[in-house]
Amino acid sequence: MRTALCDTLGIEHPIVGFTPSEHVAAAISRAGGLGVLGCVRFNDAAELDRVLDWMDTHTDGRPYGVDVVMPAKVPTEVAGMDPDSLIPAGHREFVDRTLTRLGVPPLPEDEAARAGVLGWLHSVARSHVEVALNHPVKLIANALGSPPVDVIEQAHQYGLLVAALAGKAEHARRHVHNGVDIVVAQGYEAGGHTGEIASMVLVPEIVDAVGDRAPVLAAGGIGTGRQVAAALALGAVGAWTGSIWLTTSEYELTASDTAVQQALLGASSSDTVRSRIYTGKPARLLKTKWTDAWAEPDAPEPLPMPLQNLLVSEAHQRMMRAGDPEVVSMPVGQIVGRMNEVRPVAEVMATLLRETEETFARLDKLR
């Protein structure tokens, strides 16, 4: 199975896999897709540089990409100010009260609070880009739409392609106008930051809007070969996948990831919720006691990005360390209902490809 995307990215199969795990990203690339490493968990440039050194060694010369979280503009409410000073005391009290009620213990004294939260800040995201430019990265993707134009131009000077996620056709047009090379049409079903329009409607709308100027990938609700085939039928040149890699055997960031995988393996497609409590922007998360608490009448309204990140970052650390599958905070899409077992990345990729070919063969018989 080859599309124009394969030639554009230098990959064997039109499957892009986003993941926060370098082990999973490298395995996706080795399996013939494009592994894209999420950079938001890295607090500083040196840490990311070390991980990309590892990626350079363990991708067997195959291409890979990185994903940053970078608003096109620095949020005006935090520009030039100490973000912590803008977080209301009532929000902090609610978080502390909720964690106590859920039985989440505090962090050990030797563990720094807010590990990974700095990656959500605009300035740190820019440092991530600077690091990526010094590695053989093929693609820089931005989870929040078009990166600033100067970042796009800088990436192009280094020969990198730039991708941006879009939840509306107007977003896609803006991305292409700004110089983005690949548009990811991310439907409502997707995990993490996502818009209001379902993939079945969104993908052809974006293909019709910009497909003659930029390749379009389909994202949201893709975890089987039938869904990959559907994405191609809707006009996309490939699939952008994310959630399905969370239950692969290579996924290992911390010991607490076992609890996360247990929660994901036991979830159905209806066990997600779209909320602003994770970052301040709408994102789809696994439904847990933590998300339920934020839906209660006494819960405050989530703060804008990046203030919400700063508010809940330590809470996320504490919940992950606690290892309780019922109390975690994890972005995941509605495809979670089909994530029922832990399998190696290569097996997941092989299954996607086999099912896609079987789907094409079945449809061919209908002609």
TrEMBL record:
Coiled coil: none
Name recorded for this polypeptide: Monooxygenase
PANTHER family: 2-NITROPROPANE DIOXYGENASE (PTHR32332), MONOOXYGENASE RV1533-RELATED (PTHR32332:SF38)
Keyword Flavoprotein: yes
Keywords: Flavoprotein, FMN, Monooxygenase, Oxidoreductase
MF annotations from Gene Ontology: nitronate monooxygenase activity
InterPro entries: Aldolase_TIM, NMO
Pfam families, per database record: NMO
